[in-house]
Amino acid sequence: MKFRTATVRALAASVFAAGALVAVAAPPASAAPNVTFTSRADPLDMGWAEIVMYINGDRAGTGQWAGDPGDFGSSTGDTIIAHDSASDGYGIQVTLDGSRVATTRGHNAPYTDRASGNLPEGSRHDMQVCVVKGSYSACGTVYNVKA
Q1: What is the pLDDT of residues 114-124, one digit of tens each?
Q2: Are the beta carbons of 62 and 71 closer than 8 angstroms?
Q3: CA distance 139 to 132
Q4: Rounded CA gap, 28 and 107, in Å?
Q5: How far apart are the C-alpha atoms of 34 and 50, rounded to whole Å?
Q6: Alpha-helix residue ranges (DSSP H) falling in the chain
Q7: pLDDT for 35-76, tens place per residue?
Q8: Dist CA 112 CA 135 (whole Å)
Q9: Could you tell me the maximum CA-CA distance found in the chain, to the nearest angstrom?
Q10: Cα–Cα–Cα angle for 79, 99, 71, rounded to 5 degrees
């Protein structure tokens, strides 16, 4: 069966127009959020610390260091705490010395995760708090905290 040239051209034009419409209607790639961090800490020795994360101006969660039992509700001390308070698709991750991790990644907000273990009294450790989603992360300052 032979197709007429005009029919083939009309069909090709329709397919092209449909493809162009889909390309124009596709949503733009999402931009990275504006992430900011504020902190409050034990001014004398960093025996406790709290970092609050904001995503696009809205409070997203906290990362905390509880050097002693009772700090931020910790029953054990030497604990990092990640708390996600916003249902925005982003998680909160707290890392101590690059190996101990508390994360809300993969959980619906509100959600809190803790990671603890005894550390030598008076020892110093590096804590970092990040906002995470998939392969994306935005991290704040590294804080030197005390056990």
Answers
A1: 999 999 999 99
A2: no
A3: 9
A4: 27
A5: 20
A6: 5-25
A7: 999 998 887 778 899 999 999 999 999 999 999 888 888 888
A8: 21
A9: 89
A10: 10
